[in-house]
Amino acid sequence: QLQLVESGGGLVQSGGSLTLSCAASGFTLDYYAVTWFRQAPGKEREGVSWIRNSDGSTTYGDSVKGRFTISRDAAKNTVYLQMNSLKPEDTADYYCAAGTGGPTVQAMCFMWSLYDYWGQGTQVTVSS
């Protein structure tokens, strides 16, 4: 059965770093486009970062460019999100999602309704 599990969330001080993991089971994650989304209470779900399945192309939301890095480790069937220079406004629940078709197209990568497979989420809290 297809499954995604996020881990690595926690409490970190402003300016600190945190690495999130999205581990897949039941399928090979390298064949899927993967996007990290985040959502804070009362706010819209926001696309954070995307990595394409075919060529490894990446996209970052404007609010995280220069601070976050998405990557894959095929041997571990895992996608990572390295988050540096964290700010209180980064506080949210972070979810990874995998998909084919529309999610493989950069112009549609942050359209969350197109994704079929989601992890349970991991909480990130950034304190001042």
User: Which residues sit in consecutive blocks of at least 5 with pLDDT less than 50?
Assistant: none
Biggest sheet statistics: 7 strands, mixed
Distance between the termini: 41 Å
H-E order? EEEEEEEEEEE
Computed over alpha carbons, the radius of gyration is 13 Å
Strand fraction:
over 45%
Counting DSSP E segments of at least 2 residues, the number of strands comes to 11
> Which descriptor suits the 3D outline?
globular
Average pLDDT = 97
* Secondary structure category: mainly beta
**Helix percentage:** under 10%
| Secondary structure tally, helices | 0
Question: How would you describe what is shown here?
Answer:
- With 128 residues, the protein is mainly β.
- Helix content is 0%, strand content 48%.
- It has strands spanning 3-7, 10-13, 18-25, 33-39, 46-51, 58-60, 68-73, 78-83, 92-99, 117-118, 122-127.
- Strands 2, 4, 5, 6, 9, 10 and 11 form a seven-stranded mixed sheet that branches. The protein has a four-stranded antiparallel sheet with strand order 1-3-8-7, with no helix packed on it.
What distinguishing features does this structure have?
about 130 residues; mainly beta; seven-stranded mixed beta sheet; four-stranded antiparallel beta sheet; 11 strands; globular
Task: Quickly describe the structure.
With 128 residues, the chain is mainly beta. Helices cover 0% and strands 48% of the residues.
Helix and strand layout, with pairings?
Elements: E1 3-7, E2 10-13, E3 18-25, E4 33-39, E5 46-51, E6 58-60, E7 68-73, E8 78-83, E9 92-99, E10 117-118, E11 122-127
Parallel strand pairs: 2-11
Antiparallel strand pairs: 1-3, 3-8, 4-5, 4-9, 5-6, 7-8, 9-10, 9-11
